[in-house]
Amino acid sequence: MLSRRRACWMLLATLAPLGSALSQGAPASALGYDVERSQSVQNAPAGSVGRKTTDREHRVGTAEDSLGNEYNYVLTFGGFARRCPTSAGLVKGDFEYSIAYDATETGDDGEIRREHHVRRVVVQLEGQVGPNARLMYVDMTGDFTIERSGTVVPPTSERRSIQRRFTPGPGGEPDMPAMSAAVEMTADIAVASVILAAGVLYRDAELEWTKLNECVEFSFDPPTDTEQLGPNQSRQVKVELKSKEDGAAVPWMSDRIGAIRAIGTVEPRQVENAGGGPFTLTYTASARPRRGHGIDVATESQAGVGNGLWRIVDRYEGTFTQVDKTEGSLSILTGTGVQTVTGRLVWTSEPPGQRAPSYGDVPSAFYRPTQGELTIEISNVNTNSIGGSCETQGRETFALASLPPSVLQYLLLEIAEDGRYKLILAIPDYPQTTWEADSVCSVARRTVRQKTPAMLPAIMIGIQEGRLNADQAVVGGMPPMQRGPLTTTGHWSFSLPQQ
Q1: DSSP letters along 62-118, please?
Q2: Which of 21, 237, 240, 453 is the most exposed place for a label (fewest CB within 10 A)?
Q3: In angstroms, rounded to a whole number, what is the distance separating the alpha carbons of residues 193 and 215?
Q4: Is the Cβ–Cβ distance between 122 and 142 less than 8 Å?
Q5: Is the pLDDT of residue 375 over 80?
Q6: Residue 44: what pLDDT?
Q7: Within this chain, do residues 478 and 376 fall inside the same structural domain, yes or no?
Q8: What is the CATH number of the domain that holds 230?
Q9: Predicted model pTM
Q10: What confidence score (pLDDT) does residue 498 get?
């Protein structure tokens, strides 16, 4: 005679999900019933994994020996677990497994008999994640209930509390001892089925929270991409790991702390236990610090797997000058005009990864102007053959921040690691930025002074390429550009500020 335990496990091994059984049952015509089947799926809410399905089957007798018979089956099976652990390493979840059966049968004597039967397992789950970001175990608490009633069956209701800890295998393999104990405790395979499916559910969640930076993130004080360091200069940085699930600090440890691309040094290189608060690391720059150098720290924790980069920035400061000179005569008129635009710019490095480098596989740093001003000076003199003349002089300064973003969108500096650079200095003259210059005109011994409309001219230095000089500065000039009587020249000089 089979033991009770062996019989239960044989039944569990042969049990197929009722949804499959309902959808793959014998043909309705062979059973003498019209059969309607349906399935609804409840997908996981935001921030969770898993799903819950409800399968329904409705049978109505159509043959001579089944007329008057009607059956309804409803199976609900599934659950959800949070995608990310809390800062304490807890992963909440829930699971439901219920089968409801309602039958109406008409006997040969015309008597109608009804039966109602429900078996339900509803549990709350709480997984515990270890410091290596792996699931340690899952605690399950809830109720197993059986309800039955009918024409010849007195109403009964039985409730059994469930408290069980189980540990699914690395691939979601069943915790056989826990499942065996559940079968013996309840004399039913329902709780064991929940343990089996919930173990797979939690391993699916583990695949999510072990993705890099999916559930945790490093924070730095001072923040990354804000500090500039001189040669061999040091900066203390407070590092903290935080859970994305609840925003709280997470205990962490790491032996994977170093300098980005091994440039510069970081101390200490290992953290035994950072607790739940900030831990101070010290970064010392190299003899030639550049934007993107800094700290690289990685860890596994009870809230997930994280990798953080704290980067220094650098900036280039300096000026460019564009001179537009016009000389020429037309009929009785002769004129000379000089228009000079001087830009004082502070170029600040952008966060990495936003632009593709221009020099193949050689990494580049990109800079946009964040501070500065543009100054325009005008000096025009026009004369005619009958002794008349007009002279226009003026100077105006525009803060960079006062200009429309569309005017500044083409200003960009790219510096490759091998010392090549690409400078884009282009400012359109539309939308027009207007101002007024002073004009003095003399005709037949009469002098008229007035304000003359002027505008910020287009900057046409354009795309220029070169190499950093010995001082790591961006310095160069464009050859004269001739367009009729107009000659345009340009020069630029931007360097790293002295510490």
Answers
A1: -STTTTT-EEEEEEEEEEEEESS--TTSEEEEEEEEEEEEEEEEE-TTS-EEEEEEE
A2: 453
A3: 29
A4: yes
A5: yes
A6: 97
A7: yes
A8: 2.60.40.2410
A9: 0.71
A10: 67
Q: Which of 338, 238, 319, 340 is nearest to 283 (CA)?
A: 238
At residue 22, the pLDDT reads 38
Q: Give the total number of structural domains in the chain.
A: 3
For the four alpha carbons of 130, 132, 137 and 138, in that order, the dihedral sign comes to: positive
**Domain shared by 202 and 107, yes or no:** yes
Contact between residue 182 and residue 192 where contact means Cβ atoms under 8 Å apart: yes
CB 202 within 8 A of CB 225: no
The residue-averaged pLDDT of 221-233 equals: 91
Token pair recorded at residue 208:
């999510």
Q: Is residue 450 pLDDT above 70, yes or no?
A: yes
Query: Model confidence at 443, in pLDDT bands (50, 70, 90)?
Result: confident
User: Do 27 and 127 share a structural domain?
Assistant: yes
Residue in the structure block whose two tokens are 């009870």: 302
Last residue of a domain, one of 266, 286, 309: 309
* Angstrom distance (rounded) from CA 117 to CA 250: 48
166 shares its domain with 223: no
Domain that holds residue 255: 216-309
Contact predicate 311/292, CB 8 Å: yes
DSSP state, residue 301: E
Please identify, among 209, 239, 263, the residue that sits at the C-terminal boundary of a domain: 209
Regarding whether 278 and 319 lie in a shared domain, the answer is: no
Structure tokens at 435: 């101002």
- Contact yes or no for 481/313 (Cβ under 8 A): no
Q: What pLDDT is recorded for position 16?
A: 34
Same domain, 189 and 238: no
Tokens 């008349």 found at: 388
The least confident of 15-19, 44-48, 116-120, 307-311 is 15-19
Higher pLDDT, 479 or 277: 479
Burial class of residue 93 in the structure, from the number of CB atoms within 10 Å of its CB (0-12 exposed, 13-18 middle, 19+ buried): buried
Measured in Å, how far apart are the chain's first and last C-alpha atoms?
Answer: 89
What CA–CA distance (Å, rounded) separates 81 from 88?
Answer: 16
Do residues 104 and 85 both lie within one domain?
A: yes
Stronger pLDDT, 5 or 106, i.e. the higher one: 106
